[in-house]
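#lab-general

N.A. 3:47 PM
ok so I finally got the sequence cleaned up, no stray characters, all 351 residues accounted for. can someone with queue access submit it? mine expired

B.Y. 3:52 PM
send it over

N.A. 3:53 PM
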Amino acid sequence: MSKKIRHVVGISGGKDSAALAIYLKNKHPELDMEYYFCDTGKELEETYTLIRNLETYLGKKVTVLRNAAKSTEDPFDHFYNVFGNYLPSSNIRWCTKYLKLHPFEEFVGDDPVISYVGIRGDEDREGYISKKSNIQSIFPFRKNIWSEDVIAKILKTEHIPELIRLANANQYGLSARALEILHRPLAMNFTIDQKLSLLLSEGIKEFNRLVFDFLKSTSYPLSEELSYSLVENDDVLIREDIFKILRDSGVGVPQYYEKIQFEVDGLVGEWVWLYEQHPDLFQLAMAYENEQEGFTWNQKESLAQLSNPERIMTIKRDFLNRNKNKIKTKSPYLLDILDDSETEGCAACFM
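B.Y. 4:20 PM
back already:
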């Protein structure tokens, strides 16, 4: 007898994961959802407030996971010392691996699991896909709820006959155009992304029904389910929707997303920057840096350099000019990352 599938949502301390938990409770109450939070030991008090508010709204406890639980140090400091006082970076992301992924995978064990991820419909990025075959990721806020590995498997040219057989044998509601797209093999001038986009444009629910039936011939956790309500989901949620969910629910938006007004050269603007909201924690973060060894949170400059009054004024001026000219650029700075709200870094990075 196969194990019962577990449905889990990871609460990161960011707005998207919190909104996802609320959304799924309201939209899909039939799912017996579990909630977990990976505590790095360096969380902001606002994060714990968010979790308490979520527990009240959801009517369930959020399971707190801490790696290196037997250590006398908190998880971040424990692994910071294990890695020779080397700060996590884009090259060595030990924080994600040891503070987030390891405790999560230990939490779910070998049970078949559907992990719900809060990447929004206005974001162009993929989330974590476990290498463990018992964990399957679903993205309810996007037009495409399926993970990259699922799409890559299903839309392989060699699987066209099976897709057509399923489409002909079942009432998915696929349009004639969608069937034409299914027939068309992948090529240099017809990529998997293009094929997916065209199929979704012909009908999200119809495509989802086809994918769900195809998965029954695979080893993915959903292959064991007779039905799955998210197949009928065609919501696409963007940044503004997330804030509305949090406010309307009463859970509230975490304080670290609230903007602070400032003025430079007669121009007034708003931004989000933890340096000005939590100077004590910013100082703590600076203490981890070792400029002589090149160990800094940002590869281009240290937090000490970043917090220099002249540097802050330059950043604020650039920020205002960028908004004034309506130019959207990628920035490595914490203030821009949080203001654009395009990523949900761990709380150690929020610090």
